[in-house]
Design brief:
With 104 residues, the chain is an all-alpha fold. It is built from one helix and no strands.
Length: 104
């Protein structure tokens, strides 16, 4: 092989080696960028999920509070009705007791 051919082969190998190194560097940069983008996307998705969860929790708490108020109001009405019924019966009970004691 001539000296010129050896130089050409050596230069071609060096050029191929440089191209391979450049391709490896570019691939590493693309991988790093993809990982950063993926992590950022994952973080945004996590934040969105947390915000949605907080909104759902707030909505559930609001519904629970409304239900609790409705139940309390219903119980208050029922207690008032029971108290009124008891007061009506109390007068009858007192009259019967007095009638039995006096009637003896």
């Amino acid at each position: 092989m001539s000296l010129q051919a050896i130089k050409q082969v050596t230069e071609a190998e060096r050029s191929a080696s440089d191209a391979l190194a450049a391709a490896e560097n570019e691939a590493a940069e693309l991988i790093a960028a993809a990982e950063r983008d993926g992590e950022a996307l994952l973080a945004r998705a996590g934040e969105a999920a947390a915000a949605e969860c907080a909104a759902l929790l707030k909505k559930a708490e609001s519904r629970a509070e409304n239900t609790a108020h409705e139940i309390a109001a219903k119980n208050t009405e029922e207690c008032a009705q029971l108290r009124a019924d008891a007061e009506k019966r109390l007068a009858d009970a007192q009259a019967r007791i007095v009638g039995k004691v006096v009637g003896r």
